[in-house]
């Protein structure tokens, strides 16, 4: 396992990070989830990403239990705040001062920890003044409940405004967590250049495009039983944008590329995002421990320039690049 610095900070994290979105507390039984976390630790992963909204808090609790007994100083644990949680009351959502300060306490209780290493704004809150949000995050840091602050799926302009206020408040934003993969490159035009300038790294989710880049979904055929594309708890909805025959056919063309490198399709996809020097980590999920071991093979790989060019050629115009898609991922009003 290799490690990278997170933004313009002194924090180092494992470049393969284990995340439990759509798995712990929902798709995966708790004992299997614990096995996956143990597999991650055995593979050298020290960084774990979760959020209060995942399975309405259950994912944080499962992760905390799975990490119990580990040396806390040897781990980097991340969580997030924004989406509706708990009974989903009018203030159980967003980035108001009330929700942030209550949210961090609830997350720490579920995790069974005194602090998280990184606390992230899970989306931009258009209903709360940015000054209020940043002030609340400053108080979370001052209280020692989070060591660093990051954001997720913020636009370049939102990152710039947030960083200016954060510095006035005595801290820095050090990370952004966007969707990023060989199929979904919308951050490259604006978010990445702005992040480089302002000292933020990307912690990217869905590097395998919700499983599409594994090549297991074939054009013109029904998805395999038990796969994410058949999951009615949310997985099928998340993956639907890629379940087009033109996308699936293009992905099949990557199989010889992966084979020539001695990699699985999943490892190739994870290695691809790690070629971007503004990416500090790729978040992987798993429903089986062996998936962790396979994805970790991407750590430390440097893909030749001709391979990167070949991937671009094979995927062609099925790649999403429109920067406007980042703003589209944040609701204009808080979800109920």
UniProtKB/TrEMBL annotation:
An example molecular function term from Gene Ontology annotations: oxidoreductase activity
Pfam families for the chain: Aldo_ket_red
Domain NADP-dependent oxidoreductase span(s) in chain numbering: 15-314
GO cellular component entries: cytosol
Keyword annotations from UniProtKB, A to Z: NADP, Oxidoreductase
Gene3D superfamilies referenced in this protein's UniProt entry, alphabetically: NADP-dependent oxidoreductase domain
InterPro entries (UniProt xref): AKR, K_chnl_volt-dep_bsu_KCNAB-rel, NAD(P)_OxRdtase_dom_sf, NADP_OxRdtase_dom
SUPFAM superfamilies per the UniProt record, alphabetical: NAD(P)-linked oxidoreductase
Family affiliation: Belongs to the shaker potassium channel beta subunit family.
Xref: PANTHER family: HYPERKINETIC, ISOFORM M
Protein's name according to its UniProt entry: Aryl-alcohol dehydrogenase-like predicted oxidoreductase
Organism: Quadrisphaera granulorum
